[in-house]
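Reopening this ticket.

The earlier resolution said the output was attached, but the attachment link was broken on my side. Pasting everything inline this time so it's all in one place.
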Amino acid sequence: MVKLWKNKKGFGIVEILVAAAVLGFMYMAILNLQGGNHDALLRIRGRDGAVEVAQQVLDSLKSVGIASIPSKSAEDTTFEVHDINRKWARGLGDSATVTYSPEVTVSATQNYTSTDASQYETIHHVYAKQVKVKVSWNFKGSTQSIEVSSVIR
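Inline output:
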């Protein structure tokens, strides 16, 4: 019976070092995964903010009416809207601010024009305008963008 107790040894230094190395690699992998998740979250928040800005620009254009939106009959018209900032809380009292740059392109109105003629005159009426809103923002040194399109009547 005494012989059985003598053969039982504890962990050696080599086993402890191997276990520590394995745990270290696992910890680094988890940290890398967490960093990737954080970047993905920031990218998604940036894109969500861009969609919100694009919808805000479209709603503003719809509220002013098609007569107030500059356009040409035979070619596209492009104009920029002032930059819009969005701010998000990032936890522990920190926040992130993203600057969005919207650009509006109004398609040629020749396909959205009705013509009516009388004995005295011919009237051309634009009844709708196709509007594309491109929103750009910077994320980690690269320019990201989305484009939303709508027909305003």
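Reporter confirms the inline version is readable. The chain has a mean pLDDT of 87. The two ends are 95 Å apart (CA to CA).
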